[in-house]
Specification:
- There is one protein chain.
- The protein has helices at residues 3-6, 14-43, 50-59, 61-87, 91-126, 134-144, 148-156, 158-163, 167-191, 195-218, 236-270, 273-289, 291-309, 313-340, 342-347, 353-366, 372-385, 389-410, 419-452.
- Helices cover 82% and strands 0% of the residues.
- α11 runs parallel beside α18 (389-410) and α14 packs antiparallel against α19 (419-452).
- It has one domain.
- The protein starts with a helix and ends with a helix.
- It has 453 residues and is mostly helical.
Length: 453
Amino acid sequence: MNNSTTNDFSKGSVTGNIMRLAGPMTLAQLINLLYNIIDRMYIGHLPEDSTLALTGLGLTFPILMIVTAFSNLFGMGGAPLFSIARGKQDEKRAADIMGCTFTMLLITGIVLTIIGLIIKKPVLYLFGASDQTFPFADDYLSIYLLGSTFVMFSLGMNTFINAQGFARKGMLTVLIGAVLNIALDPIFIFVFHMGVRGAALATIISQFASALWVIRFLTGKEAIIRLTRSSIKVHKALLGEITSLGTSGFIMSVTNSAVQVVCNASLQTYGGDIYVGVMTVINSIREVVSMPVTGLTSAGQPVLGYNYGAHLYKRVRSGIKFMSISCISYTTVIWILLLIFPRPFIHLFNSNSELLTLGVPSMTIYFFGFFMMSLQFSGQSTFVALGRSKYAVFFSIFRKVIIVVPLTLLLPHIGGLGVNGVFLAEPISNFIGGTASFMTMMFTVWRELKKNE
C-alpha cells in the first residue's frame, strides 16, 4: 500500500485511527515540553539564586507564549483545512495551504525577533519583574528570541506531518530537539557556567535541529503532499481562511499569556517574588499533566476533519464521543493524584522549603475540579477540527479574558483572599468555561451531525 492509502482516516476504526496518532503525538508534545521543563528543573536546582533564577525564567513565559500563539495561528489554522482538503481529494489546495503557512511562519518569526529584542526590558518589568529577577529573565529571553523562527517552524509545520498521518515522524521532530536539549543543558549551564543563558542557548540549538528535520521531511519523497517552491508564497484567499480558523489557537495562547501577566503582577503585589515562583512551578506541573489531553484532542482533529470532509458524519460523532470520555476520565484521575501527592510534583522543579510550604495549598486551590478543563478542550478541538472558527474563537476568549482575568483582579480583594484569590480564578473558569464550551458543542455540532447522518 502507498502512504495515501494507509493514512486514509475514512477507513478502519475511528477510535483506532485517533489512538494510532494519539500515542506518538502525546509523546511528541510531552517531549516538546522538555525544552522548557528541563531548563526549569536545572535552573530550579542551581547552587546559588535558584529560586530567583526560576522566578525570572517564569517571567518570560508570557512572551514565549506569544511565539507559540503565532505558531498556532498559522499551524493550527492551516492543518485542519489541510485535512479537510485531503478528505475531499483536493491535493492542490492542500499543498497551497501548507506553502502559505510556511511563508507566514517565516515572516512572522523574523518580525517577532526584532520587536521582542527592542521592547523586552519595559515588557518584563510590566509583567512583574523586580530588580532581583530581571537580570535572569533578560539573560534567558535575549538568547531565546534569536531562535524564535526555529521554534515557529518546528511547532507550526509539524502539524502538517501529523495531518498526513505520520505521527511517529512528527514525534521525531521534537524527540531530536529534546534529546539534544537534555544533552546540552548541563554542559552550558554547569560546565560552561552560563546559568540561564546556557539553558536558552541549548534550547535554540535544539529547536534549530527540529526545524531542519521538519523541512527535510515535508520536502522529501516520503510525504504524501510535499512542500514545494511553487507553493511557498502568500495566497491571500487561503491566508484569510487559515487565520480565521487559527485565531482560536492564537487567542488561546495570547489569553494564556495575558492571564500569566495578570497573575504574576497580582502575585508580585500580594505575595512578592516567592509567589511568582510558586506560580511558575504550578504552571510547569499543569503543562505536564495536561499534555495527554492536548495530545488526544490534537490527534482527534485530523481524523474528525478528514471524515467531515468525506461526509462520514457518524464517524465524526464516534470520534467526538471517544475523545471526550477519554479526556474526562484521565483528568479526574490526575486531579485525585495532585490532591493526595502535591509535594513530589513540586519537588521536581524546586526544593526551597518556603516555596514548598506555600506551594502545596496554592496548588490544591488551583487544580480543584481539574477534570472540567477537559470539557473545554473537547469542545474547542471539535470546533477547530470541523472549521467552526467563530465558536472556537469565542470560547477561547470567554474562559480566559471574560472569566479568568477579571476574577484574578477582583478575588484578592474579597474576604481577604489575597494570593489565594489569584489561584482560585482558574478552577472557577474551568467549571464555567468548560461547561459552556462542551454544551454548546453538543447543542450545535452534535445535533447537526446526527441530523445529517
